[in-house]
C-alpha cells in the first residue's frame, strides 16, 4: 500500500494513526487490521465513500453486540442467542 493511499485514507477519515512528536505516523495492529479491511473492500469494488459507510456500520454493529452482551450478563441470562436473519 503506497504512502499516497495512506494519506488519502487519513484525509477521508478511514484511518487515524497515532503520530510521533515529529509527525511520523505510527500504525497500530488495529490500524493494520483496518487497512486490510479497506483493501478487501476496495477489491470488492467499493469506493472510499462506500468503504467509510461499511466501516461505520461494522463499528456500530460491534458496539451494539457488546451492549447487548452486557445487558444479558446484567440480567442473569448468560445465553448468547442469535436471531437468524430473514432469508438465511
TrEMBL record:
Residues 69-88 are annotated as: Disordered. The lineage of its organism: Bacteria, Bacillati, Actinomycetota, Actinomycetes, Micrococcales. PROSITE patterns: HTH_MERR_2. Gene3D superfamilies: 1.10.1660.10. The keyword DNA-binding applies. Keywords: DNA-binding. It comes from the Bacteria. It comes from Paeniglutamicibacter terrestris. Residues 1-57 form the HTH merR-type domain. This is MerR family transcriptional regulator. The keyword Zinc-finger does not apply.
Amino acid at each position: 500500500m503506497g504512502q499516497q493511499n495512506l494519506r488519502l485514507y487519513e484525509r477521508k477519515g478511514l484511518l487515524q494513526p497515532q503520530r510521533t512528536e515529529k509527525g511520523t505516523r505510527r500504525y497500530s495492529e488495529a490500524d493494520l487490521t483496518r487497512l486490510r479491511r479497506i483493501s478487501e473492500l476496495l477489491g470488492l469494488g467499493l469506493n472510499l465513500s462506500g468503504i467509510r459507510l461499511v466501516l461505520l456500520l461494522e463499528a456500530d454493529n460491534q458496539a451494539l453486540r457488546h451492549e447487548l452482551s452486557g445487558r444479558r450478563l446484567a440480567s442473569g441470562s448468560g445465553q448468547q442467542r442469535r436471531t437468524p436473519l430473514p432469508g438465511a
